[in-house]
């Protein structure tokens, strides 16, 4: 798990390493710990890596949307005096990265999107469990992965607490609606930032055809597949994910 978190003002995050700045953005039902292996690898390989906790359950309801989350990351970049940042985003984290890339491309050196929302309108709403018993929630959690062993008891406990808290559920619904509202299909052709797309071949949340559409619409992208992999490649196949991304970085002098 990501430990030794720093809290400064409104930001809670982990940082490590030295070199080019990199920010890892988790998804709506994920946590910073989903990127543990990515953090460890790149903070030891020439990058200064930041893993902020997104304030999914603490922002006012009216600000719980893709736009305000991208502004939160913009402020986080300023808070740490960063420039030319690499953004790696999974699911909602990818959507936030794309929105920031659209409105503030000057801040971003490159993008890595994995199982990103932002294009497939049904993805977010379909993937967030509603209230139910633990067995139902266990099945929903396991369905995110190709191998259900990655759906840990800790994840299930966290999800159970979330879906049984009214305020948390309202925020999830607000973000899901926001993601549909901020569909990026018309914006992607204008985002010329170098982009690495890493997708699980068995992703049932943002299926393979979504990755193909991202690659088709983005003018400066390259798509890579990971077999026997679901919605969170960096968690399910971290070594393969890190190898793909680092090789792409070297190829593009990132």
**Number of helices in the DSSP assignment:** 10
Distance between the termini: 27 Å
Rg: 17 Å
- Largest sheet, if any? 8 strands, mixed
| Amount of beta strand | 15-25%
Number of domains: 1
Question: What would you say about this model in short?
Answer:
The chain has 254 residues and is α/β, with parallel strands linked by helices. It has helices at 36-43, 66-79, 92-103, 121-127, 134-142, 153-163, 166-181, 208-217, 233-236, 238-251, and strands at residues 6-8, 11-16, 20-25, 47-52, 85-90, 108-114, 195-200, 221-226.
Characterization of the model:
The chain is of the alpha/beta class and 254 residues long. The protein has one domain: Alpha/Beta hydrolase fold, catalytic domain (Rossmann fold). 41% of the residues lie in helices and 18% in strands. The protein has ten helices and eight strands. It has helices at 36-43, 66-79, 92-103, 121-127, 134-142, 153-163, 166-181, 208-217, 233-236, 238-251; strands spanning 6-8, 11-16, 20-25, 47-52, 85-90, 108-114, 195-200, 221-226. The protein has an eight-stranded mixed β-sheet with strand order 1-2-4-3-5-6-7-8, with helices on both faces. Strand 5, helix 3 and strand 6 form a beta-alpha-beta unit. Helix 4 runs antiparallel to helix 7 (166-181). The radius of gyration is 17 Å and the shape is globular. The chain starts with 5 loop residues before the first strand and ends with a helix.
